[in-house]
Amino acid sequence: MTATRTPEAAAGPVVPPPPGPAARRFGPALRWLGPVARRAGSGLAVLWAAATAAYGALRLAPGDTVDILIGEGADTPGIRAQIIREWGLDRPEIVQYLGYLGRLLHGDLGRSYQLQRGVGDILATQVGPTVRLTLAAAATGVLLALAVALGTAGRARRLRRAASAAELVSVSVPPFVIGILLLTVFSFTLGWFPVSGAGDPTALVLPALALGLPIAGVLGQVLREGLERALEQPFALTARSRGLTERALVARHALRHALLPAVTLVGWFTGVLLGGAVIIEALFGRPGLGQVTMLAVTGKDMPVVMAVVILSAVVYVAVSTLLDLAYRLIDPRLRSVR
Amino acid sequence: MKLTRSGLSLILLIALTACGSSEGTSGEVSGKASGGGSLTWAIETQPITFNPQLWAQNKARLLVFNQFDALVARGADGGFVPWLAKSWKISADRLTYTFELRDDVTFHDGTRFDAAAAKANLDQFLVPGYNPAVAAIQLHAFDRAEVVSPTTLKITLNEPDGLFLDFLSSPLGGQVSPKSLKSAKDLKAGGADVVGTGPFILDRYVQGQEVHYRRNPAYHWAPEGAAHQGPAYLSEVTYRFLSEAAVRVGALTSGQVQVIEGVPATEVALVKADPGLTFQSALNSGTSFSYYFNASRPPFDDERVRRAFREAVDLDTVLASVYRGTATRAWSVVARTSPFYDPSLEKTYGGDAAKANALLDAAGWTTRDAEGYRVKDGKRLTARTVASAPFVRDRRDILAQAIQAQVKQTAGIDFQVKIVDQGTAQKALDDNEYEVFENSRGDSDVGAALNLILPEGAAINRTRFHDPETEKLLARASASSDTAERKKLYGQVQRAVVSDHAIVFPIYVPADQIAARATVQGLGFDPVAGTPRSAYDVRVGT
Description:
By secondary structure, chain A is mostly helical.
């Protein structure tokens, strides 16, 4: 889940090749569609690779599937045979693998060994809460980072130092500890927010904060540095000499420059969010993919683990495709390539 | 500081709203004792299944009898009392059980409970792949069930089985509606569509968050000797899954939940010091948490080394430091809650460092290496314990580390603690790559656990040790239903494995704890299992 990529690799700016005659005819529409189609193609390849890698890794992991399914129960040849038949484990490895891919294409994710339910059913109920949590955390992180960066960039040294220290702390303290601290203060002592409860929107505040703070830390640092660098550029001087206020300069020009490296980080923080959700969901007693994944990995519940891996791959591919598009929005140089 | 009139009224308004909203959640709690009330109970472990017939987690036992009833129950004295069966007769050869069933019981889906339903429940275990372990162990003697009349069920066994009534009274004996058995979408997972006859109806399950039950208003078939008859006091109860102990305690002290189970030793003092809270705990049934020595490979194939390990640990000191005086030391593999516990084993071994060293010297582990560990034939005196992370609870990892430090210091034993994933643990056990196996079991009748642990080739015989004498005793005890005779036989078994062969190092008796707001009454523990009881008798006073 926490696959780390270097920011550059996550979503390097894609420079499109010179467009063919069709592109010239359809103009702007194709300029957007081309990269998307290419992205979708490579996305499918990534998905296949992720599914296969997950399958292989779990096959190689120690522990026989039949043993796992038997657990501490009685172990007789008769029982083994029943389990092998029930889960189709007697077929050759390649048949099992192809069967798995085939079912996957039909959208059939299989049945959980542990929970004895369809994996699709399990995920269907757990995706929503995780999406809500990660989106809320991402929004929290981005807003906090923007607020701190805009408030401190180019300001007094002491202010910048303080912000920088706060960012460092939020990045280095594990989310588990941040979560416990937030709970102790805002839930157990002040009673402002409940520990858990999905129906109650206020229950989302603390987990989103705990998960979003590390992102705010890194993003804030990157944004501030970007802003400060941009404000030293000749164009900033030009803008100032045109009589632009400092605020307008930051908002209209400098921020756009600062956003480029920040956007590159989105790929990284998708991983942080998905990985952090495992801890935060368990801590706050929230439903979600994190808890399901933890249970599945420790219990070697192959169908669930593989479904989660594939889902994460889908998210990564989608995020990096969107990032490429975002670059084109932010950086006009990419749009004007002919 | 001066407050303007409008400011003051604003604050009052906020305060009132706050009271109002907190009453919205806890106001239902303080409902009339008979009329209603609701309760939120934070529990540590999320059940893997809600189907009682596939139940396997002792920590989830407290949920089962909200939704389900069994044919017989355990009374306060541990004996069997009528529940869905009004009475029963056991034939002289102890092969035929004839149950007279209640005729006024209905499942939550409206289906009538009768002999055919009870038979369908037993026959369900014979469906291949449903629960092969129970079919092979608990029901090994089961031959057939016959419907004599709608209220008479006759069960025939192949051989006498002293544990058969215990099985029927356990969660595995929970009666599921035949309609659910036939048509539930996910029968093995259980849930809202796998229904029973219990005092509560499961109506909402949010995986990872909570399970919600509402009262079954028709319920009037509580087991004989229950604290009350008729429907449950609470109109609804929510069990919230909070796996983190500190979060459970925080949720309780801040009033967000009214009851929690699983209070770690580090939090007990805090809870006890709060006058608004109550605390109770009970020892579990089954086997003690014990280290089982793998007697099939060095170094523990030598009985002297097994004894030396036990002598090398000053267990009282270790338990006091790890559990802050809340743990109960075990002296036998059988938990002291069992009627078969043999107290004569107490203080017969352990904590003698000089003896440990003498035993190891005698066993040939005479030289020491640079790190101070004992060595024989160039091999270090090493013992590995391999535990599966999902099953490590009660700070057993910390406990193992404390023991590790002790055996190194007092006797030069290299005790290695490996906490791994389930697959790796299973592989180590299958490959015989371990020296110590740690385990406790919560079976209500300890005989069931001993049958899994001690005989040759039994499912969790991790000592790989077998003794024909012990096996004979176990078989006789299993077939008997005479408590005095079984006590004598199990006493002999305990002395054999603990004293004579020293294949086990009993450590502590697992316990369950409940902490609650002082207004919550009727909480308690199952008299036999020692796990928290269902919510049937629970009510919220004022």
